[in-house]
Amino acid sequence: MRELKAISLFAGAGGCSLGFTQAGFKIVYANEISNSAVETYKNNFPFTLLDDRDINVIDFKLVLSEINLKEGEVDILIGGPPCQGFSTAGSRQDTDPRNQLLKSYLKALLVIKPKWFLMENVEGLLTLKNGEFLHETLKELENLGYSFRVDKIYAQEYGVPQRRKRIFIWGNNLGIKISLPEPQHILTNSIFNNGVSVGEVLKGLPSPKEKHTITNHEYPNVSEINLKRISLLKPGQTMKDLPEELQHESFKKRANRRVADGMPSEKRGGAPSGLKRLKINEPSLTITSAAIREFIHPEENRPLTIRECARIQTFPDNFIFKGNNQQVIQQIGNAIPPNLARVFALHISSLGMDKVNDVNIIAGLQDFSLTKAQAMSPALENTFKLLNNLKKRGAIYQNDFIFEKSEAIL
């Protein structure tokens, strides 16, 4: 079998790159602009051509020349533009300059013309501008000749020990029908507690207090007041379960603001939970850059260490991070979990890397899955309608091949 080649944009620390490498892909070129993430990537992927320039100044025709490939010869383009502009904790404005980076990804797609692409982002992308931002993005993908899916991916279904939800937009220009990988764990209840547990993934790590050689496996001194708070938290409890006198002032103010000021939910950020003790027999909450400040070990009275967060994100212990603690936890929180990337890499490889012969390919939205919840917000309902209309314009499938509508109807 020939070597499969991938390009990674907005590569970060390399979570997606690691998963694809584990699945047999060679990352021939990567782009990342954050200095600390660049150093992490260099350290773990020394044989990849790494470009640390702003993506907007890169001539991808020259990049293809540097890696001795032509347009259409790259097997897959992977990576996700920085997502904070779409986050419910951010401004969620389509004019946010961070959101323009998604358009930069599309421009790269236009030049490179990979056989497949996989783009990851946060849930906020679904409802930005009531779904119109996503709708316009998908129409651009259609214009570029790709057929694709949009899926909300629940990472714990695929062996990641955390309740992490992300949006995947992925597709090909080969005429291949796309299906989701078979889940390893089926989510059957509203709080999604099944899957790999925190206890399983942290097993074997020494205590941070012991002498060891594992990097990033320590935690800062805990203040007396925080130690008191932590000691009272039972598994699954958060700041709101503490006596009022122990609740942080900022937590009390924020909790009150959420009910008193009438601010729209998309402007208010996440739930004001502050400290949270994880449950040892359940998957973790989503690892973010706040995890080492807020997530409490399920059995010990201390915050999680960076290495524990990395394990929950499925980074192996020999993956070395560069930068200060805040830079490193941000790299980890922003990453696509390597195990999740590997599952999709193997699945895409199994679907095929060659154009389907004698098929008249219709570009457009093949299918989508936006939520497992029983109800949708008004904004998500609007997104559903927009995508459903886009899907009706797209391909019709018979016997796993793509046909023009006129052919299919006949």
Please give a structural write-up.
It is a single chain. The protein has 410 residues and is α/β, with parallel strands linked by helices. It has 16 helices and twelve strands. Strand 8, helix 11 and strand 9 form a beta-alpha-beta unit. Helix 1 packs across helix 14. The C terminus is likely disordered.
Question: What's the layout of helices and strands?
Answer:
Layout lengths: L3 E5 L6 H8 L2 E7 L3 H10 L4 E3 L8 H7 L9 E3 L21 H13 L3 E6 L2 H4 L4 H12 L3 E8 L10 E8 L25 H5 L21 H9 L16 H12 L4 H4 L7 E2 L13 H4 E2 L9 H7 L12 H10 L3 H14 L12 E6 L8 H16 L2 E3 L2 E3 L1 H5 L1
Q: CATH superfamily name of the largest domain? A: Vaccinia Virus protein VP39
CATH topology of the largest domain: Rossmann fold
Give the spatial strand order of the biggest sheet.
Answer: 3-2-1-4-5-7-6-10
The general outline is globular
